């Protein structure tokens, strides 16, 4: 499994316990750009398997989490390191843009390539 399906509880636990950087895709099933972004998220998850934890959080099912992180439009990607948000990317983006945004998530100087 390349990506995790997150609930409010599993999201909170993941941020608290993760020893690796975390990328969360805030999405909804009715969102066409979210559906277009899904293959990009899956590709990133496969590329960095073992180095980056990638999760998907449905904002319709878990609106409190989206609200807590100021997610006003979807898709929104938020990268976390040590439980804290360190990057945000809103809207549909190609893989190279996601990889560039992920540079700030790595704490060891890794450039995401």
Describe the structure.
- The chain has 113 residues and is an alpha/beta fold.
- It has a single domain (4-105), classed as Glutaredoxin (3-Layer(aba) Sandwich).
- The protein has helices at residues 8-17, 32-47, 63-68, 95-102, and strands at 4-6, 22-27, 53-58, 76-81, 84-90.
- It has a five-stranded mixed sheet, with helices on both faces.
- The longest helix is centred in the middle third of the chain and has 16 residues, at 32-47.
- Residues 109-113 have low confidence and may be disordered.
- This is Thioredoxin.
State the CATH class. Alpha Beta
Mean pLDDT: 92
What is the rounded distance between the termini? Answer: 21 Å
Q: How many distinct beta strands? A: 5
Task: Please state the overall shape, judged from the principal axes of the Cα atoms.
Answer: globular
Low-confidence stretches: 109-113
Specify the biggest β-sheet: 5 strands, mixed
Structural domain tally: 1
